[in-house]
Amino acid sequence: MPESSHAAVFTGADNPLELRRFPLPELKAGEALIRITCCTICGSDLHTYEGRRTTPLPTILGHEILGEVVALPAVAPCDVDGKKLSVGDRVTWSIAASCGECFYCTHDLPAKCDQLFKYGHEAINQQHPLSGGLSQYCHLTAGTAIVRIPSSLPDAVACPANCATATVVAALRIGGGCINETVLIQGAGMLGLSATALMASGGAKQIIVSDINPERLAQAVQFGATHTVSVADEDGELAEVIAKATGGRGVDLAIELSGAADSIQSGLQHLRMGGRYVLVGSVFPAPDVPVSAEWIVRRWLTIRGVHNYAPEDLRDAVLFLEEAHTRYPLESLVSKNFRLADAEQAVRYAIREKPHRVAVVPFGDN
Ligand SMILES: [Zn+2]
Ligand SMILES: [Zn+2]
């Protein structure tokens, strides 16, 4: 075991990431030390890097992380199924760790714990510097939901599980499932394509995917979309497709993943009477969206927001990826690997080329 870990440190928008070295921690009860094998860069990392989202500084970005347990304390943590972890286990873990005792933890909302510890979002401090994925090692705190990864899952498929996949699993759970239903997925990025495959696996009858990017719409078909609609110009075509697919009623369930105000207004218009709308994409500051309360009341609409997710969503995300990765081209969504020393180039490549994901693979380069 080395005594220290390299990590790429973010000090503020417009500053290049700096490779620094941190000592490895002494582990306390319930903690774990992970050797990171892969970290995929998420859209929210890019929002932070470009200054559209604030975060405590300096920090180690990266929260879609996969790794191997390399050290455990005498009181080792368990995985989400209650089985003790062992050194050598291949794992991912929840984006946020929760205390299990506060008001929200005891009211079925651990995602909003009062003591929330969020990987890839914490300021570096002396007690716990290694909290992000752009690093060789990550120090897991007690209260982290840890999930074992089956050896059949390639790194590129498993790595986005703890952000993109678990979030859409939570959205579908909160949305009430989709068996035999017509669903609208707004946005065909990493989350939208994952949601499309999830709905197709989950028994949806028709899956209508909208986006402004024609290449992403073409990809959505490979992930199980039955209809794709460009909303680059105006909304008329989407209304037509939905009317035709549902006999004029509207969709049963819509999931909004873009966070764009006009997309949210459009989604509300396209729900059937009694329809459910789950908002996921609005995770950055944006103008308010005018909605008609009368429309919501008279149409019996349900609108829910989802941010972070519950531990069981991560477990279900990994189960879904295990059964679905041979049927949908999930692995193709990670387009390129970079070394940790090249983390800055990885971020710049992601901003410039806009692939769904790039990966940073920390070992073998230092
Ligand atoms: Zn993310
Ligand atoms: Zn709590």
Summary keywords:
single chain; 366 residues; alpha/beta; Quinone Oxidoreductase, Chain A, domain 1; Rossmann fold; seven-stranded mixed sheet; six-stranded parallel sheet; 10 helices; 17 strands; 26% helix; binds zinc ion
Please describe what this structure looks like.
By secondary structure, the chain is an alpha/beta fold. It has 2 domains: 4-154 and 325-361, Quinone Oxidoreductase, Chain A, domain 1 (Alpha-Beta Complex); 165-305, 3-Layer(aba) Sandwich (Rossmann fold), CATH 3.40.50.720. Helices cover 26% and strands 24% of the residues. It has 10 helices and 17 strands. The strands form 4 sheets. Strands 3, 4, 5, 8, 9, 16 and 17 form a 7-stranded mixed sheet that branches. A 6-stranded parallel sheet has the order 12-11-10-13-14-15, sandwiched between helices. It has a two-stranded antiparallel sheet with strand order 1-2. α3 packs across α4. The longest helix is centred in the last third of the chain and has 14 residues, at 311-324. The protein is globular and about 65 Å long. The two termini are 14 Å apart. 50% of the residues are buried. The model has no long low-confidence stretch (mean pLDDT 96). Residues 42, 44, 63-64, 163 line the site of one zinc ion.
